[in-house]
C-alpha cells in the first residue's frame, strides 16, 4: 500500500511528474540537452527572483552546500547553525581543510541577526552560511533581517541553505543579496530526490577565482565556466530524468503562481500549527515557525513510532523527531503539492488513532 | 522522433527499466529503503565478483573517482592515464590538494604493466588509479596484468575506473585485488545517468582511517560507516528512483547470466571492429580494443557531424570523437542492452548514408 508522505523529504510526488522520470534518454552533449538545461535555468531564476546564474548538480543538496563553502571561502567561514543541517555545513568545511567557526543557536531558536553582525564585524570572515529552514527543529530563520546585516559586509559571500523551503516560501535572492542559494529537488519543489540546484552570483564567482583547492565535482566555478562555454551542458553526465521532471514541474509551479503557492504553504502551516498548539506544543519559537514543516513537542508522551506504524496502515507517513529529538518530537511536513485537504485528512486520522 | 543511442553513455534504456524510475517515493529512513539498498548491494557484489562492501552515490561516476583519490591517498597517488578520463582523475587530486603524479600513455595505447611496476617500485606511492576502459580512445586496459603487478605492492590502494565497462565485461574485483572499483549507471549497466557505484575493500577502509581531509559527500569512509550503522541507509537523501531501476535491472542482468552478457558484448564488439577495419581503421591498438565501444579512425575524411545528423533522421545516434579527436574519429558504443541486430541495423544505415 502506498503511503502518502508527510515527511520533510522525500515528499509526495504527483503521478504526472513521476511519469517524466521515465522519458527516453537523450545525449547530454546535444542541442536538446542544452535547451532543456537552459529552460530550467530561466524558470529557476523566476522561482528565486534572481538574475544570477543557476547551477544544477546531480547530487543531494548536501553536495552543493559542500561546494559552496569549499569553492568560496578564502579566509574563514562563519557557519551559523540552528540544528542538524547547520552542524553538517561546519563538518563539510572542517573535512575539507577549510578554516571555519560555528555559531550555534539553541535548537528551536533562530539565528540572531545581531550576533551575525557582531561576528562579521570582527573582519575575520569572508563567507557566511545560514540555514533558512531547519528540518530538524522546524525553525525558519529571519532571512530578511540577516540579509540586511549582510548588506554592511560587501566582502562576505552570503550562502543560504533553502533546501527545505525553496518552492514553498518566497526567497528573493537578489533583493536579499544572497550569493549562493542552495536547494534540492525532493522538498518543496515536489520532485524525487537526486538533483540539487543553486544560484551563483558574480561576487561568488570572483571569490572562487582566488580559492586554490575548490575540489572537482562540486567546484562551483568549474561548473559555472563549463556551462558558459558549453551552452548549459554539464561536465559530468547529469541525471537527465530529473531534468525532465524538474523542467515540467517548474512549469506547473509557475502556472499555479508563486504567490498562490506560497499562500497555500502558509495556509497549511497555520492549520498544522493551530492543531499542534491545541493538542501538543510547538517545538520551534512560534515567531520563527517554518511554513514547510512543523516540529511538534511530544507533550502527551505518545509513542511516535507506534503512531507512524498505525498511520502507515491507513496510507500516511509522518516523521519521528530528528536525532536526539526522536520520540521527544514528531514532524509533519506540509510542502510541495500537498494541499489543505490532505492535511485535514492526516490530522483527523492522527486524532482517530490517538483518540484525542 | 526518438533516437536509439549508440553513444558511450547515456545508453539506450529499455522501457521496463525506465518505468521503474516513475515509482512512488518512499522515505529513505524506512525498512523498505534498507531492504532495497541491501538487495542492490548483494547483486552488485555478484556483478563485481566480490565480497567487498558496495557504496552507492547519487552522482555521476566522477564523484566516486574524486572520493576514492581523496579518501584513500595518504602519501601520493600515481595516476595512470590513457585518455581524457585518466587526466580527469589527476585534476581531481590536484584540485583537492592531494599529492599526485600522472603517467600518460599515448592516446590509443594502453597502460604498460611494466611501467606500473617501475613507478610503484620507487616506494613513493600508496594509491594507484587505472582507467579500465577509456571512452575517448576505445582502449581497454590489460587489467589482469596490471592486477598481477599490484599484488607485489600490498601497501598500494588499487583504484579502477570501470565506468564504461562494468556490466559489459568481466571484472573479477577480488581476484584482481581491486580495492575501489567504480562504475556508473548510464553505461553498460543500461540505466539512466545519476547514480554511481563502487566496491570498497578492507584495505581501502583502513587507509582512509589515516587520511585527514577526506571531504564530505564523497568521503568513502563516512559513507561506509554510515551504511554499516544504519542498515544500508545513506547519510544524504539518495535518488530512490535510480535505486528502484538499478535493483530491477540487476535482476535482469543476472537472469541473462553474466557470462552470456559478456559474450553478447564481445560479439557486438567483434562485429563493429570488423566493420571498422574493413571500411576505416581502428583508433585503438587492436590488442587492447574495448568490448563496449569502438573508436573509429576517420580515414575516409567523412563529415561526422553530418553523418550523425542524417543518422538522427533515421532514429540513430553515434558519437563524434572526443575533444581534439572530433571529426578525426567517431565512436560507436555497443553496450548495455543493445544486441547484435541493433548493431547490424546501425552499420547498414551508416553504409547507406555514406554510400560505402
Q: What's a quick, concise take on this entry?
A:
Two copies of one chain form a homodimer. By secondary structure, chain A is of the alpha/beta class.
Task: Tally the beta strands of chain A.
Answer: 15
Output the number of helix runs of chain A.
Answer: 13
Order of helices and strands of chain A: EHHEHEHEHEEEHEHEEHHHHEEHEEEH
**For the largest beta sheet of chain A, what order do the strands appear in spatially?**
2-10-9-8-5-3-4
Largest sheet of chain A: 7 strands, mixed
In CATH terms, what is the fold-level topology of the largest domain in chain A?
Answer: Aspartate Aminotransferase, domain 2
**Averaging pLDDT over every residue of chain A, what do you get?**
97
How is this structure best described in words?
- 2 copies of one chain form a homodimer.
- Chain A has helices spanning 15-20, 31-47, 61-72, 84-95, 113-121, 143-150, 173-176, 202-209, 220-229, 240-256, 258-279, 304-313, 340-354; strands at residues 4-5, 53-57, 77-81, 100-104, 127-131, 133-134, 139-140, 157-161, 180-184, 196-200, 281-282, 293-297, 316-317, 319-320, 329-333.
- In chain A, the strands form 4 sheets. A 7-stranded mixed beta sheet of chain A has the order 2-10-9-8-5-3-4, with helices on both faces. Chain A has a 4-stranded antiparallel beta sheet with strand order 11-12-15-14, covered by helices on one side. A two-stranded parallel sheet of chain A has the order 1-13.
- In chain A, strand 14 (319-320) and strand 15 form a beta hairpin.
- Chain A has 356 residues and is α/β, with parallel strands linked by helices.
- The first copy, chain A, folds into 2 domains: 4-9 and 257-354, Aspartate Aminotransferase, domain 1, CATH 3.90.1150.10; 16-254, Type I PLP-dependent aspartate aminotransferase-like (Major domain) (Aspartate Aminotransferase, domain 2, 3-Layer(aba) Sandwich), CATH 3.40.640.
- The mean pLDDT of chain A is 97.
- Helices cover 42% and strands 16% of the residues of chain A.
- In chain A, helix 2 (31-47) packs parallel to helix 10 (240-256), helix 3 (61-72) crosses helix 4 and helix 10 packs across helix 11.
- Chains A and B meet through helix 3, helix 4 and helix 10 of A and helix 3, helix 4 and helix 10 of B.
